[in-house]
Amino acid sequence: MPDYYWSLETYIQIVLFVLFQLCFIVQLYYLVSNHSRLSGYKPVEELPQVLIPVSVIISARNEAQNLQENLPFILEQNYPDFEVVVINDCSYDRSDEVLEDLQRQYSRLKVVTITEHDRFKTGKKFALTLGIKASKNEYLLFTDADCKPASVNWIARMAANFGNSAQIVLGYSPYYKTNKFISRFTRFETLKTAMNYLSCALKGEPYMGIGRNLAYTKTLFFSAKGFASHMHILSGDDDLFVNQHATANNTAVEIHPEAFTYTAAKTSWASYFRQKKRHMSVGKLYRKRDRVMLSFDAVSGFLFYILLALCLVLRYEPLLALGLWLFRLIAQVIIYNKNFKKLDGKDLIWYLPFFDFIYYMYLTVFGLIGAFIKTTQWK
Asked: What's the rounded Cα separation, in Å, for the pair 276 and 265?
């Protein structure tokens, strides 16, 4: 082979390795700057004594079984002053019968019914807006029909964060543990997402929340004109609302285990992909700084693994490349181990090397899908 060919090959190898090191540095920055915030955070252990009136809001479409199983655990919360507002959104299963039966048992339950219209198709944001208008209290706590509070103190734990200037409370909602691979990965992906948004909130840079466990004030909702700015987008009743209105001063975090709300993970890859496609489609509407922050993490993580593979295949500094991967992995284990324990996922630390790789591949794929494909139904 001519000498100039090898010089070009060497040049390409050096460029790739430099890019690999840059990705390593960016990834290390996110670990130390963001995720370590959550690892050092300790929730308040003592059960607070809170008396503010709370309205729990649940939008449900064809959720008869989930309402029957989970709603009693919400209606029987250890809290002195609360109501539960369920919006029965165009259901055609037994939801109306289940809700009527529960209303006879629990005076705290209020039902708002939406009927299907041939010309006007409603979505979750419309349903939630009606529920918020029907609620009687200033402090609103949101969850889904398929969610079950971890304890009878869920409302108390979440409500305790309102005070001073707090208008938004970000909670956490893990998935139940099963032995299925899809369940384990879903839990891992949920943990990574939670570490991101909770750590950023603790850092004073909140950018999203999840509707399975989220609270904010009615005053904030109406002063922000509700979901008006993104009513045309299917998703985003939770993360877009928080992204647009959360600040360092008006946002609090609650991660006590008693404040979790649990739900079941998707049981098929098809349903999981539909859910993720819907969630990822709203990312392009985040504030610019948040899009940049999330993109740098996703792209650097994706390229980190791609460039690592290229360094090994091309045999350019393979030992050093593996050393950087191992250093990052050890740093992840140290920080993630604390976070996973806090968020009920300590068993997943053993899957970290494999799931972390899959996670960054998934972020890239669904980021592209969400950017170009529109979803047309929420349920």
From this structure: 12
- Mean predicted lDDT score pLDDT of the chain: 90
pTM of the full structure = 0.90
> Tokens 């250890």 map to which residue?
78
Q: What is the DSSP letter of 148?
A: E
Q: How many helices and strands, by DSSP H and E, does the chain display?
A: 13, 9
DSSP string, 319-366: HHHHHHHHHHHHHHHHHHHHHHHHTT-GGGGGGHHHHHHHHHHHHHHH
Kindly report, residue by residue over 135-160, the tens digit of the pLDDT: 999 999 999 999 999 999 999 999 99
The predicted-structure confidence for 60-104, as pLDDT tens digits, reads as follows: 999 999 999 999 999 999 999 999 999 999 889 999 999 999 999
Cα end-to-end span (Å), the chain? 61
Beta-carbon contacts of residue 184 (< 8 Å; ≥ 6 apart): 178, 348, 351, 355
The tokens for 359 are 């996670």
Residue 262: its H or E element = strand 261-263
Domain with CATH 3.90.550.10 in the chain: 54-271
What lies within 8 Å, CB to CB, of 157 at 6+ separation is 47, 48, 254, 256, 258, 259
Q: What are the two backbone dihedrals, phi and then psi, of residue 224, each rounded to the nearest 5 degrees?
A: -90, 5
Whether the Cβ atoms of residue 281 and residue 235 lie closer than 8 Å to each other: yes
**CA dist list (Å): 117 to 111, 113, 120, 121, 237:** 19, 13, 5, 6, 22
Q: What is the pLDDT of residues 243-253, one digit of tens each?
A: 999 999 999 99
CATH of domain 54-271: 3.90.550.10
pLDDT in tens, 263-307: 998 777 777 777 676 666 677 788 999 999 999 999 999 999 999
171 is written with which tokens?
A: 């909670």
Cβ-contact 90, 116 below 8 angstroms: yes
